[in-house]
Amino acid sequence: MLRSLTVKVRPNCLIETPKWCMLGKHTRCYASEQEPNLEPIVMSTDVFDGPKLDVTQPPLITMHGLFGSKQNWRGISKALSQRTNRRIYTVDARNHGESPHTTVHSSASMSADVVAFMKARKLEKACLMGHSMGGRTMMYFALKYPQLTDRLIVVDISPIAVPRSTNEMIRIFDAMINMTVSPSVSMSEGRKLVREQIKQATDSNETVDFIMLNLRKDPQTGVFSWACNAQLLRDFLPKFQQYGSKLSNLPPYTGPTTFICGTHSPYMKRDHWPQILELFPNASIHWLETGHLVHFEQPQQFLSLVGDFINQP
C-alpha cells in the first residue's frame, strides 16, 4: 500500500512584517513597481473552469519545471477545477513551451512574469503551485510578493539546495544544443536518434523522457529544434546555484504553505526542513512514494492533497 506521510508545523508566534512591506487592505503591488529592471513577458496559458466556478475565490496559477510546459498539467488542472471550484491557470514559463524566448532566465524574472499575468487579469491574489524550477519561482514570488499570494504549493523541490551537479546539466544542455539529425528523416526516426544522443549525457531515463517532450520538427523545412531555449538555459545555469542568496534578504512568507515531495527523489532532503521553516513558518510537508514527477506517478494522491489544501478556509 502506498503511503503518505504528513508533518505539520505551525509557528508559535507571528513574524513581524517589515514596515516597507506593509500595504493597505486593497493595495496591490506589482512587479513593475518593485523590479524596474525586469521586463516581464506575456506567458502562454491554458484556463480550466469547473461547472461550479466560484469567481470570488483566488484562482490557482501553476508553473511547470525545467524542460516542462503547461501541457504537463492539463489532466491535473481539469481535475482540480472540479475539486476546488476555482479557476485554474497553467502557464508556460519564459523560454519554455509556447512562451517567448528571452535573454534573461531567473526566479526573479519569472516571478515578474507571474505578477504581470495577475495585473493583466486584475487578480487581487492567487494560489500558487510550482514543480521543480516552477516551485522555486513560486517560492520566490511568495516571499517577494506576499500581498499577492493566497497560499503556496511547492512540488518536489527545496529552496535550500539542488542535488544535480552543474556538470551533468551542462552535458545535457550541450547534447541538446549539439544534436545532429538530418531534416530528411521522419519525426519518429529523428526522436530515436536524438534520444540516443541525450542518453550519452545522463543516466536518468526519466530526464531523457522529459527532455524529449520538447523536440520539434518544422513541417516546412524538416529541421529539428527544441521548444525550450536550450542555449539560454545553459548560459544561465550557474545562476541556478545562487538561488539561496536571492532569498536571504526577503522576510519569511507566513501564509499557508505545503510541500509535496517524492520519497525516491533527491530534490528534497529531510534535513532541509528546519531551514525551510525559517522561510515558510506555516508550512506542512507530505511525502509520497514517488520519484521527482510526483503528480505523474501518484496523480490521485496528489490531487487529494492539493485539493484539500486549497479548500482549507
Which labels suit this protein?
two-stranded antiparallel ribbon; Rossmann fold; single chain; 10 strands; eight-stranded mixed beta sheet; alpha/beta; AB_hydrolase_1; disordered N terminus; sn-1-specific diacylglycerol lipase ABHD11; 313 residues; 13 helices; 15% strand; 36% helix
Walkthrough of the structure:
With 313 residues, the protein is of the alpha/beta class. Helix 6 packs antiparallel against helix 7 (205-212). The chain is globular. The protein folds into two domains: 4-162 and 241-311, Rossmann fold, CATH 3.40.50.1820; 166-235, no CATH class. It has 13 helices and ten strands.
Set out the fold topology.
Elements lengths: L3 E5 L22 H4 L10 E4 L11 E4 L10 H11 L3 E4 L15 H14 L5 E6 L1 H12 L4 E7 L10 H12 L9 H13 L5 H8 L2 E3 L6 E3 L3 H6 L1 H4 L2 H5 L9 E6 L10 H7 L3 E6 L5 H4 L1 H13 L2
Parallel strand pairs: 3-4, 3-5, 5-6, 6-9, 9-10
Antiparallel strand pairs: 1-10, 2-4, 7-8
Family: Belongs to the AB hydrolase superfamily.
Keywords: Hydrolase
EC number: 3.1.1.116
Structural class by helix and strand composition: alpha/beta
CATH class category name of the largest domain: Alpha Beta
Number of domains: 2
What's the order of the H and E elements? EHEEHEHEHEHHHEEHHHEHEHH
Largest sheet: 8 strands, mixed
Strand line-up in the sheet with most strands: 1-10-9-6-5-3-4-2
Find the CATH superfamily of the largest domain: Alpha/Beta hydrolase fold, catalytic domain
Number of helices: 13
The helicity comes to: 25-40%
- Summarize model confidence as the mean pLDDT: 88
Low-confidence regions: 1-36
State the end-to-end distance.
Answer: 30 Å
CATH architecture of the largest domain: 3-Layer(aba) Sandwich
CATH topology of the largest domain: Rossmann fold
User: What is the overall shape?
Assistant: globular
Count of individual beta strands:
10
> What is the radius of gyration computed over CA atoms, rounded to a whole number of angstroms?
19 Å
InterPro entries: AB_hydrolase_1 (IPR000073), AB_hydrolase_fold (IPR029058)
Protein name: sn-1-specific diacylglycerol lipase ABHD11
Family: Belongs to the AB hydrolase superfamily.
Enzyme class: hydrolase
